[in-house]
């Protein structure tokens, strides 16, 4: 017996969410069928309202609501720091550390030729203009410690050094090493090798 | 930095899906932000359309689309079999086995006093009326092999036997035993004990 057509549509659209396979999508769909009409309408309205209520800041690319970009305020501008990120979500993660109070720049992705994301998609012109005009002391590259993150970081260094070095702006990248609370038994070899070669005076 | 208000709304509504915690809901939400406007509108329309396009059959409680209930057709009615299920989804699982061609009756849940689902919620009046009027040979109880499933099955037997026995209708329950492809090393003790006590002549 085939599922009713509309149920197949519900399952199909839910499967487009990240990490949701057919089994989870079916589970979600059968749950939605039991929701009250007003809750379904609320969900529909919230989803439909995304383009109207959530934007990317024209300047830094961070995710903002209906307000001015809180990541581009004057206090951050005058800090002299600019942190380069892959996605808008990373800005919230860095903010949560309370260790950083500078500006951000969101690239929108990492170089990954197999996924069709080449260096041109990083749209570095916008970033280069910012680097030339902002009063900077340090650029912090905060990208994943993956092959794509490493590739993008190296590419950025090559592209940005000609602008940053003459201005006396330093570049840094997030440290690699043992995650907090990890035991050496369980840490993978790559992490351990990197932690060893980056060992610090104690 | 707090997430924009609308993003919090998106995360909050997605968290109401079964098995979705805050981390998954955030992941879904950040993905939805990247969707095109027309895809978001399509999703909203599909969700909003659930009450109009998906119904429960008034007779058997199975899930149906805009058509007549395919689970209540005359060929199934004359088979003499009625299968009692907890949820509409189970009917599709049983259909997929191609081993059963009779009618269904969906209870809508299993007795679970801790979750506020007492025996009165099974609405047995409807089922009793069907059992008295349908031409039956056998009633198949197809409920979970859990505490709630066992409780509900025993309660059904006590309630329905006075109707079924005088009519000469037999009652059966799904077999318990080793799942297909399982190795004895990995099967839990309860399953093994049940498989042993229900052993069949070979």
Describe the structure.
2 copies of one chain form a homodimer. The first copy, chain A, is α/β, with parallel strands linked by helices and 202 residues long. Chain A has helices at residues 5-14, 22-33, 37-48, 50-53, 74-77, 88-97, 124-133, 147-167, 189-197; strands at 55-56, 63-64, 81-85, 103-106, 138-141, 170-173. In chain A, strand 3, helix 6 and strand 4 form a beta-alpha-beta unit. The interface between A and B is large, with 53 and 53 residues.
Oligomer: homodimer
Instruction: Provide the β-strand percentage band of chain A.
Output: 5-15%
Mean pLDDT of chain A: 92
Morphology of chain A? globular
What's the structural blueprint in terms of helices and strands?
Two copies of one chain form a homodimer.
Chain A: H1 5-14, H2 22-33, H3 37-48, H4 50-53, E1 55-56, E2 63-64, H5 74-77, E3 81-85, H6 88-97, E4 103-106, H7 124-133, E5 138-141, H8 147-167, E6 170-173, H9 189-197
Helix pairs in contact in A: 1-2
């Amino acid at each position: 017996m085939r599922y009713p057509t509309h149920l197949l549509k519900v399952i199909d659209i839910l499967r487009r969410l990240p990490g949701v396979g057919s089994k989870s999508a079916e589970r979600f769909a059968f749950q939605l069928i039991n929701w009250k009409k007003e809750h379904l309408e609320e969900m529909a309205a919230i989803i439909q309202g995304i383009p109207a209520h959530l934007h990317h800041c024209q300047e830094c690319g961070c995710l903002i609501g209906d307000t001015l970009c809180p990541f581009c305020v004057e206090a951050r501008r005058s800090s002299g720091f600019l942190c380069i990120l892959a996605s808008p979500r990373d800005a919230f993660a860095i903010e949560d550390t309370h260790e950083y109070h500078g500006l951000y720049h969101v690239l929108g992705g990492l170089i990954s030729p197999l996924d069709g994301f080449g260096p041109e998609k990083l749209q570095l012109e916008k970033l280069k203009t910012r680097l030339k005009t902002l009063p900077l002391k340090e650029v912090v590259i905060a990208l994943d410690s993956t092959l794509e993150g490493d590739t993008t970081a190296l590419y950025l260094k090559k592209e940005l050094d000609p602008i940053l070095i003459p201005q006396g702006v330093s570049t840094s990248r997030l440290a690699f090493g043992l995650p907090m609370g990890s035991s050496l038994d369980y840490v993978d070899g790559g992490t351990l090798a990197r932690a060893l070669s980056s060992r610090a005076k104690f």
